[in-house]
Each structure stands twice: as C-alpha cells, then as structure tokens.
Amino acid sequence: MRQFIGVDLGGTNLRAGAVDPETGRVNAFITTPTRAAEGPEGVIAQISDLVLQVLSDGRLGGAQVGGVGVGVPGVLDLERGTTLLLPNLPGNWKGVPLRDTVARLTGLPTKIINDARSITYGEWRFGAGCGVEDMACLAIGTGIGGGLVIGGRLHLGFGGIAGELGHQIIDHDGPICGCGGRGCLEVFASGPAIAVMGQEALKEGIGTRIGQLAGNDVSRITAAIVHRAALEGDSVAKGILSRAGYYIGVALANVCVSIGPKRIVLAGGVMQAGNLLLDPIRRTLIKRVRVMPINEVSVVASTLGEYAGVIGSAMWAMDCLG
Amino acid sequence: MRQFIGVDLGGTNLRAGAVDPETGRVNAFITTPTRAAEGPEGVIAQISDLVLQVLSDGRLGGAQVGGVGVGVPGVLDLERGTTLLLPNLPGNWKGVPLRDTVARLTGLPTKIINDARSITYGEWRFGAGCGVEDMACLAIGTGIGGGLVIGGRLHLGFGGIAGELGHQIIDHDGPICGCGGRGCLEVFASGPAIAVMGQEALKEGIGTRIGQLAGNDVSRITAAIVHRAALEGDSVAKGILSRAGYYIGVALANVCVSIGPKRIVLAGGVMQAGNLLLDPIRRTLIKRVRVMPINEVSVVASTLGEYAGVIGSAMWAMDCLG
User: Quick check: B117 and B135 in contact, CB under 8 A?
Assistant: First the structure.
C-alpha cells in the first residue's frame, strides 16, 4: 500500500514523515527548527526540501508515496490551496500558494489543512480518539486550536473554520483576544495566558516557586515553568493551572452541548501538565454540563504527541487524493 | 408516496399534520391547547387521539401513512424512546415510554425527537435552511433550543444532545441557569429573560411604553409586550431587544467558530420581533467572529413558522422508518 508524507509546520519546529495508512506508523520521521524568519518563500522551500529528504530516506524501503499533506498553523483557503493568515509566522502570508508550490517543488500531489485539524484527524485515526463517531480535540499551545470529527468524518465547515474552538467566547465582556474579538478561551488559557498568570503572581509579591525557577526574572516565566513549579508542589502554580483548566472546561462544556461528542482529546505543549489540567477540566465539565450524561464523555490526553500532526495531515492527503 | 404524521408537542400548544415528503406540504393540520395539567398519561393520550384525528381527516384523501414522528420539548432517551426531563410540562416525565405508547395507541410505527431538533430539520428540508450542507438553528421561546445540520445530516451527537445551543455559556461567571449551570445563553435572551429586562426597567422607574402596555403591572410584562413597545418606537424596549440580540449573537459567534455553518436560522416565538433582534445579532456576529468570512454566513428567520416542528418530526420519522 502507498504511503503518504505528512508535514507539520509549526512556528518553532517543522516535522515530516511518511505514514503507513494501514498502521499509522511514521517512517523516516524528521524534525528540524522552522526557518520562520525567511518568510513564506524560505519556509515553503524548507518544507519541500524536507519532503524530498523523507522521500529519499533509506528507512522508507522503497515504498510508493501517493502524495503530501501539510498541516499549517493558521487560516487557509482550502479551495485555492493558499494561506490567508498565519499569526505565529513572520512575513506576509496572505494569498501565498503553499499547496501548489510544494506540489511543484516536490513533484507530488499536495493538500493543505489547518494544523489543529490535522492533529484532530491523526488522533482520531490512530490515537486517543480511535473508535468514536463524534470527537472534539483541543490543541493548547501558544494559541488554542481545535478540531471536530462528526459522524465519523473530519468536519471542516464553511471556509474550513470548524473546530476553531480557541475562539469560543466564555466571557462576552472579557479581555481583547489576538483575533480581534473579546473573551475568547485563548485569552484565558493558552501557554502565554498561563505565563501571564505566573508573572502577575510574582509582581504581586506572592511567594511562589515560580519566581525561583525563573531566577526572579518576570520576563522568563513561561507556562512550562508554572508547570514545573506545580510539579514541585507549589500551590500558587497549581492554582494557576487549576484556573486555566476551569476556563478550558467551560469552553468544552459549550462544545459538549453543541456537538455532543463521546470523547474529548487534549493535545499541544501546554497539556504536558497532564492531570494538573485534566482534573480541573473534568471537574468543570461535570459541574457545568447539566443536559447530557457528561460522566460518559471521556476526556483524555493525546497519545500521538509530536507525531499527531504528521499522521493527520498524511491521512488527510490520502483521503483527498485517494 | 406515503405521508408521515408529524406532531409538535409544546407546553402551550399541540400541533399535528400529515406531511407529504416530496413537497413538505402539511395536510390535515390541527392545532389545539396541550392538556399539560393531565400529566404524561393524559398528554400521551391526547397526542395519540390527535394522530388518529389526522389519520381519519378527509383532507388526507386516502393517502397511505408510513408512521409518526413526535417532537418533544426536553431531554430524551432516543434508544429507549423515553422522556427524561421535560422542564416545561408538569408531572414526572422521567422514563415515560412516549414512543412505544403512541405507537401502541395509534397502531403506527413512531419515533421521537427533541422539538428544537425537529424544527431545525424541518427548516433544513423545506424552509429557511434549504440547500446548505451545514446549518445551525436556534429556537427562542420560553427556553432556547437549537439544532445542527452537519454535512447534510441532522446531527444528534451523544445522547441526542447536539444542538442544545441555549446552554452555551457566554459568561462563565454569570447568573444561575435553569439547567443548574451558570451564564448560559438562555439566562440572557429567552422570552422570560426579555420580560425580566422589561420588568427591571419599570421597577427602576424608567419611563417606557412597556409599563403602559402592561397596565403598569410589572407581573404582566412579557417578551411580546416588550416587542410591541419596541414596534411603537419605545427606545427602552428597543434597547432591551438589542441587548438580547447581542447575547444571541455572542452565542452564535461560538457556533460559527465551532461548526462553521453556512446559514443560521432563527425560529421560535421570540423571533416574531424580526429585525429588532436580527439586526443586533448580525452586528454582533460581524464584530465577534474574526477568524472566518462571517459576511458570507446568512442569518435568517424561520420560514415555516408553526409548521416547522410538524414537518421536521414527520421527515425525521420517515428517515428512521424508511
């Protein structure tokens, strides 16, 4: 059976590999820092080089390759195969023909998809979402993305926007979000939002391990440091993650009453905090969702980790290209 | 072609008719006050009598009838065909075998569905939602229900709960909702919520036509009176509807980023306010949805009116029964 190459374009790392569609196994996996500063042209050249590198990798064992799927962190025009807005990559990405350029440079038919949607699809096909008809996925990192599988199909919706769960409004009068709206989940519970909560605790002079771990330099506080402090038993840090989990739980309560998923998968770097986030998320869901048997909805962590996006975009390409 | 009988059970009115599945035309339509005080047994007997009345109606012209669909205002167990929670009907509806009892009393195969989902399905098949793949519907009355059509199919989700859009949280720290949660849309923009805003204006001694129309009796103020005052140009009443429309718009912004619908249909008694609600809803959507081409999402009023639920539940029964 033909394999498909999946690419996961992130603001920090670029990952690629050839995916066996029968097993979900990733062959010839490569990860490298994204040369984001080079702008669209440089990044697209880097993607294409990486694809060719996977293609010529001995680990592929001469398997046939049917095409390429690229997971892209932003808003896309799926019909034209162009990028519209990539908030975490420098340069002007408006109207860049990413799909067709990668196809031309690699000689392989190519499809593009939003990165969080590709993670969703990967987790559903071979990861934590296996076997359910309806699933929601939230990918929590620098931003908060997401995706939906509905009736056993990745649901893209009008403009491919379906699953943009980080921009659900949980406080209609809340703080301004990067999207231009107000009170979106992303303002409350993204990696940077968690870091800000840590910074504020320090500024207020609250005694916390967070400060020590950041060398008392407020600007060095990240979500990862808050997580580390919480693991070491710091109650302020645990409180911050609990607060973030509460906000995520409120947004997921909305997802539950809207689409009635059987499973919710949580992915992205921030979810390395594991149960420190999962527990308050589950508690909030039970408290806030009263119109369905919420106890029977499983809320689980991603199992594919850094492979999810590669697997998902490869499988998506296979679905599109046949 | 066989017709199917649709029943729309409301807290106030009970409606039934035979639906021609080729045209959506309702034959032998009957509407009568619901004998809600008689409790589950009485209401189910009334439903069955009404079905038999439609069946023997001369206007049917001897058409074959393939089955019955009943739209029920509450939470259902679709597999067992029982009611779980009907907040707006008196009596203990927990575990009542509505589906099988109607089938036995009428001699016709019967299916049940949530009432807002049946309105959604009706509008999609023959009303304001015709022709789109992905659609959301909000039914605004005493409560706020809703439904989703996704990928050209009515989406029910786990436990049949999908589309319960009135319980979307738009203020995580907001007032307690009837569902037991907090800050749900229903608290802010249902008919009773609009009435409360009118009552509060009067209590605060604000000069408004609302008070005159209610004979200065706070307890007589309803959403319909607020609407009438607004139509007569009263600025307080217009402000109240504008506020309600804003809240509805925020919740629909969440629906947009979650499922990416191409069309949104607004139904239910409160929507008789028409553009007094539609305008602020559209304004809010444009302001709050920044990650998709929201201008291309049409936001329209229901076109089937009181027939929507009858048509939807009949068509649903046909889909299930073949």
Answer: no
